[in-house]
Amino acid sequence: MTAHTLTLASWQCPYAAGIDEALARLDTTAAQARAQGAELLVCPEMSLTGYQIGAQAVAALAEPADGALAQAAAAIARRHGIAIVFGYPEHNTGAKPYNAVQFIGADGERKANYRKTHLFGDIDRAQFSPGPQAPAVFDWNGWRLGLLVCYDIEFPEPARGLALQGVDAILVPTANMVHFDEVQRVLLPARALENRVFLAYANACGQEGDTRYGGLSTVCAPMGEVQVQAGRGEQLLLTTLTRSALHSARSTSPLPDRRSDLY
Q: Rounded distance, CA 103 to CA 112, Å?
């Protein structure tokens, strides 16, 4: 059965002081989002542990995809009847952990797990291994969805790869800093437009150590228009994706005219 709409909540928030606080805040926010009609909650990059916490802390907190963090997120999803996308460090035997995101359905079942493939500067390379696999599309509630993480969306290929798999919406947990607003201002609308997809970018905000995150979480529609955008502070941003917007945008899509014989 095809769902004609998808109500999505992007949670723009500062990082918690620890995992217990992060899970408690996720529980509260999931309840709030569901009460406002959201079917899906997208959280920032590394939302359960913090992002710039250092290689030693990342390694100590890393877990398998079915570890305690995932089980706790699944219990929250079941309790409130809302799907959740969250970020965490995934254990990687014999190497640095992956910067991973996971999609848990409202029934608590894991639908997708993706490992960030494009590492951002010394921050990422000191803490993580790059993901070894390109992102894949998965089906949920009649929608074809794909996951990317932060810096991934700044390259055209990951989003295009998902588009060629028939993705409807790309969900992007992120931790983009201030002074990089061109991502939200220029790149996100361009990625949505060139691929004729919805794009939901859930950013962190506030301070973590010496780093300040820029907020401006954004959802773009398939013709590149900004459907909704947050400010700089903590915010729960709700919007509804419609299949009619997808159909309309795709009626003029350039993708069928690609010269795949040349590239």
A: 5
List the pLDDT tens digit at each of the 263 positions of the chain: 568 999 999 999 999 999 999 999 999 999 999 999 999 999 999 999 999 999 999 999 999 999 999 999 999 999 999 999 999 999 999 999 999 999 999 999 999 999 999 999 999 999 999 999 999 999 999 999 999 999 999 999 999 999 999 999 999 999 999 999 999 999 999 999 999 999 999 999 999 999 999 999 999 999 999 999 999 999 999 999 999 999 999 999 999 999 999 98
Check 43, 90, 96, 150 and give the catalytic one. 150
Task: At 22, give phi and psi (nearest 5°).
Answer: -60, -45
Three-state DSSP class for 151?
Answer: helix
Rounded Cα–Cα distance for residues 235 and 246 (Å): 26
At residue 109, what is the residue type? Answer: E
Active site residue 109: no
Architecture of domain 5-251: 4-Layer Sandwich (3.60)
Domain boundaries, the chain: 5-251
Q: How many CB atoms lie within 10 A of CB 211?
A: 15
Is 116 a catalytic site residue? yes
Place of tokens 């220029």: 186
Of the residues 45, 63, 154, 208, only one is catalytic, namely 45
Active site residue 150: yes
Catalytic residue, candidates 39, 63, 90, 116: 116
